[in-house]
């Protein structure tokens, strides 16, 4: 955790989605070639217990299929085309299983992953959501990726659960600090008691101000942002104390951070 925060971190948001379909191996492989420190990705579980990579609860936006992720079997999910929506050159791209992605990460020394748990109790039920969380934690242990993993969720219930189960072995990443928190569900713990990182948001979608960073500092939480990749935005964010940029366009983000003298690759 401390090693990760020694420098400003560049994370690829669902891979390099500026040049390949999000949350596919194409996007992940391209992000790695750009030299990112971390990949942020999203985890779901199929109806028959297979863990896989996708952002939405519905498969409709990023595949040629229809339906809720937690109501589909892995065989049904495997049959979907997850690339044609982005461009014909990606036709036939499949949804990555967690195992496929884990093997890729394991073979990429030094790469961190920000695992966002996307099975929410209010969508698929508490039992399913926590079994999904357990599936991710088991896989992280099985692939020996504990020391390169960060755990993330918009669900207070899920985030509290994985924080307790992981016993402080992995950094915890929350979503927003009051009054612009994006967390939902019942919370029983205060963020400062177990969060290590927080993505900053504003109500009007502008760049977080000094007060947002001050709130993180007061709570002992590292601040990060996912904002439009412009030199002005990045310069202001670095000045205010941003420690991690999660970017939809990591190629541009890396260039901007190099221009600002805070990144050498």
Secondary structure elements and their pairing?
Layout: E1 9-13, H1 25-33, E2 38-45, E3 51-53, H2 74-78, H3 98-106, E4 112-117, H4 121-124, H5 126-142, E5 149-152, H6 156-166, E6 172-175, H7 191-194, E7 197-199, H8 210-219, E8 222-225, H9 231-240, E9 244-247, H10 250-259
Parallel strand pairs: 1-2, 1-9, 2-4, 4-5, 5-6, 6-7, 7-8, 8-9
Antiparallel strand pairs: 2-3
Provide an overview of this structure.
The chain is an alpha/beta fold. The protein has 10 helices and 9 strands. Strands 1-2-4-5-6-7-8-9 form an 8-stranded parallel β-barrel, surrounded by 4 helices. Helix 9 links the parallel strand 8 and strand 9. Helix 5 packs parallel to helix 6. It is globular. The two termini are 21 Å apart. The mean pLDDT is 96.
Considering the chains and any ligands shown, give keywords for the structure.
9 strands, 265 residues, alpha/beta, 10 helices, 34% helix
Total strands: the figure is: 9
Helix and strand element order: EHEEHHEHHEHEHEHEHEH
Q: Please list the strands of the largest sheet in the order they lie side by side.
A: 1-2-4-5-6-7-8-9
What is the overall number of helices? 10
Inertia-based shape: globular
Give the biggest beta sheet: 8 strands, parallel, barrel
Average residue pLDDT: 96
Determine the structural class based on helices, strands and strand pairing: alpha/beta
Q: Which bin fits the share of residues in helices? A: 25-40%
Distance between the ends: 21 Å
Stretches where pLDDT is under 50 for at least 5 consecutive residues are: none
Strand proportion, as a percent range, falls in 15-25%
Radius of gyration: 18 Å
């Amino acid at each position: 955790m401390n090693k990760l925060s020694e420098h400003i971190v560049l994370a690829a948001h669902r891979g390099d989605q500026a040049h390949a379909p999000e949350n596919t191996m194409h996007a992940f492989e391209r992000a790695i070639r750009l030299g990112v420190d971390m990949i942020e990705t999203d985890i779901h579980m199929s109806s028959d217990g297979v863990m896989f990579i996708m952002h939405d609860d519905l498969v409709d936006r990023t595949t040629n299929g229809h339906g809720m992720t937690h109501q589909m079997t892995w065989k049904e999910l495997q049959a979907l085309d997850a690339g044609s929506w982005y461009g014909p050159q990606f036709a036939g791209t499949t949804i990555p299983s967690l195992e496929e992605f884990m093997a890729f990460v394991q073979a990429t020394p030094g790469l961190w992953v920000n695992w966002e748990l996307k099975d929410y109790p209010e969508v698929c039920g508490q039992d399913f959501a926590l079994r999904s969380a357990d599936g991710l934690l088991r896989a992280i242990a099985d692939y020996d990726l504990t020391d390169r993993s960060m755990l993330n969720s918009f669900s207070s219930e899920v985030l509290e659960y994985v924080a307790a189960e992981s016993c402080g072995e992995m950094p915890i990443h929350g979503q927003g600090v009051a009054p612009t928190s994006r967390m939902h569900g019942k919370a029983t713990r205060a963020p400062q008691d177990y969060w290590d990182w927080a993505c900053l948001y504003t109500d009007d979608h502008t760049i977080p101000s000094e007060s947002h960073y001050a709130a993180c500092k007061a709570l002992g939480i590292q601040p990060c942002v996912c904002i439009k990749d412009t030199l002005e935005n990045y310069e202001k964010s670095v000045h205010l104390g941003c420690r991690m940029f999660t970017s939809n366009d990591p190629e541009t983000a890396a260039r901007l951070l190099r221009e600002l003298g805070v990144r050498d690759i």
